[in-house]
Amino acid sequence: MEHFIDIVLLGLLMITGFAIVRLRSLLAVTMLTSIYSLLSAALFVVLDAVDVALTEAAIGAGISTILMLATIAQTTDREKVPRHTPLLPLIVVITTGAALIYGTLDMPHYGDPDAPVHRHMAAAYLHDTPLEIGVPNVVTSVLASYRGYDTLGEVTVIFTAGIGVLVLLGYHTRRQNIQPPGIKKIVVLRVIAKLFLPLILLFALYILLHGDYGPGGGFQAGVIFATGFVLYALAFGLGNAQRLIPQRLLHSLAAAGVLIYAAVGIEVMLLGGKFLEYRVLADDPVTGQHLGIMLIELGVGITVAAVMLIIYFGFVSRQSSGDS
Amino acid sequence: MMALALDLLSWIFLLAGAAFLLIGAIGVLRFPDFYTRLHAVSVCDTMGAGLVLIGLMLQGGLSLVTVKLLLIFYFMMFTCPTAVHALAQAALQGKLKPVVEDRES
Known about the structure:
- The complex is a heterodimer.
- Chain A is mainly alpha-helical.
- Chain A has two domains: about 1-105, NADH-ubiquinone/plastoquinone oxidoreductase chain 6, subunit NuoJ (Four Helix Bundle (Hemerythrin (Met), subunit A)), CATH 1.20.120.1200; about 120-324, no CATH class.
- Chain A contains 13 helices and no strands.
- The radius of gyration of chain A is 22 Å and the shape is globular.
- The N and C termini of chain A lie far apart (about 60 Å).
- Chain B is mainly α.
- Chain B contains three helices and no strands.
- Chains A and B meet through helix 9 of A and helix 3 of B.
């Protein structure tokens, strides 16, 4: 049964991929990439990788679709017809694909329990997590504690991406409220948006704080938190959204998240541990780990949410500055 | 006996939901213009997904899973019609005319 679901999902992924390549309308391609992400999320659920599935659904199907739509709104929704023949790219793709498939022949079988990846570190993580960290979700313990350095690096990458967008696009604060004129008439959308904004934010906090026990964590929570405000901006206009969360606040929050993360590491060093070795934070090592994970997840969430909003506002606020 | 009845009921809901989803999908493919297709989608979203969720709730029994499914159900009952409504409004304001069959000519 599981194989059947796998085959159906992979088949749908392939069809979507072909459709993305064939279509010339970028709007349709954007929607199809969103569907592609949702299908991959379903595939990850089948593989029992719920944390990855949640990330894929929130980031791939959610916020990146919004960002691509914002880009299309400013540029064009038609792909240019290429002038060269597709022969050379085709040869390159076929050669690369053949090399990759040849490469997979050396890899262990799909789901092989004896694969090196399952025998080396994974076994140690699974064995040590209940003793050392005491959180049921091993993914969180690996991500936030065992591999805390990597996650700090990832947060820094996201922070850098936010700075990059700020430097390239700038940040235009709108005095007047910019909105397509028709949106005001869609009362239902505004009412529902107002009703659901607190629920979305609450759900994001749940994902953030419940990351130790269920799927989720700082990254997913940050993105969901940001989409709440994106919804507000869509329904009530950009100017109102920018008044709700001013630019300065976003900038400081983006930096504050990374700083919280790094500060936890340094605090631990001052208490006599190694960098990001949370167990010295409390008298009981397990409580210390809990506290440390919670703090750094909070940092991750703050940075991700702020950077997503910086990127979104950076994209969308340009749109109206061009024609005014 | 009770378990069997619940199971049966849940499967009826699941199959009915699947039927609605299928009808909606056929409608999206076969209907002539944007608005009628949107109509098919909204049936698909609210009715089909709603029935599937109810079926799953019956499978879940009294547990945390059912509460979560109930929340999803509640969420979908609000968001799907809103999304379809907003789409239709946007199309209307974008001056997209519905296809009307002209019987006279």
